[in-house]
Amino acid sequence: MKTRIITGLWAGAIFVTLIALGGSPFVILMGVLALIGLSEFTLMRRHKLTAFPFLVTALLVAFPFVMMLLERQMDMSELPMSVNQWMILGLTLLLFWTVVTKNRFTYEDASFYFVSAVYLVIGFTSFALVRLSDDGLSKVLLVLFIIWATDSGAYFTGKTIGKTKLWPSISPNKTIEGAVGGILSGIVIGIAFILVDPILPLWEVIILALVVAVVGQLGDLVQSAYKRHYGVKDSGHLLPGHGGILDRFDSMIAVFTVIWIFNLL
């Protein structure tokens, strides 16, 4: 518990500071986290970080964040390649690698790397884009408070009155009662937030909190599913007492993706 608290304090301090700074420092943070997430996926699959597929996919993941940084300094029409074109090139190289290795690197392996890249790029770029938008700091804090309230509410409600298993084959400890408690906690904290910082009308915050609470818990289940598939307890060991980056950002990746796609903020 002591290790968990100490890690939470220093990691939280760095994270909150960079959220407050916003701009390029926050975009860089999101890019670094996406690359660490990719390394965690790769190690879970027991592949090497020095192998060609990882290096190609790392470039594929890094490219959108580099573009976000350049966009703040130059005309994007001057660039020879768009993010979509770069992603297609990366996928093509991964598929070519199945031929070069005579199928020791399989189609399933190529799919694994590409899906991992898309998952991380969309999640972390969406997070960055919300922060870079108007009133971005308040929007990000609102969403984070709802996510954290949902996690805490689900945990304590489940511990107290949880009886009905939510999805035992994926996450045996989660209960329906806990999930409902998490949703209600997220809504309450969302309403409390706008009483202090009224950036959205009440009805919009209630809808947002409901979406964030549900999607956040689904994101957590997604992470539970792939960890169970690969037979690991934690996605990594970067954060002692907390696991890896994917362990800490599973809900945020899902939530900010949905928020950005459906323009909920």
Can you tell me about this structure?
With 265 residues, the protein is mainly α. The chain has helices spanning 2-21, 23-44, 52-71, 83-100, 107-132, 136-161, 176-196, 202-230, 245-261, and strands spanning 165-167, 171-175. 75% of the residues lie in helices and 3% in strands. The protein has a two-stranded antiparallel sheet with strand order 1-2. Helix 2 (23-44) runs antiparallel to helix 5 (107-132).
Beta-strand percent range: under 5%
Give the structural class. Answer: mainly alpha
Residue runs with pLDDT of under 50 for 5 or more positions: none
- What integer value in Å does the Rg equal? 19 Å
Number of domains: 2
Instruction: Name the shape in a single word.
Output: globular
GO molecular function: nucleotidyltransferase activity
Catalytic activity: a 1,2-diacyl-sn-glycero-3-phosphate + CTP + H(+) = a CDP-1,2-diacyl-sn-glycerol + diphosphate
Keywords: Cell membrane, Lipid biosynthesis, Lipid metabolism, Membrane, Nucleotidyltransferase, Phospholipid biosynthesis, Phospholipid metabolism, Transferase, Transmembrane, Transmembrane helix
Pathway: Lipid metabolism; Phospholipid metabolism; CDP-diacylglycerol biosynthesis; CDP-diacylglycerol from sn-glycerol 3-phosphate: step 3/3
Short description:
With 265 residues, the chain is mainly alpha-helical. It contains 9 helices and 2 strands, in the order ααααααββααα. The protein has a two-stranded antiparallel ribbon with strand order 1-2.
Write the layout of secondary structure elements.
Blueprint: H1 2-21, H2 23-44, H3 52-71, H4 83-100, H5 107-132, H6 136-161, E1 165-167, E2 171-175, H7 176-196, H8 202-230, H9 245-261
Antiparallel strand pairs: 1-2
Helix pairs in contact: 2-3, 2-5, 3-4, 3-5, 4-5, 5-6, 5-9, 6-7, 6-8, 7-8, 8-9
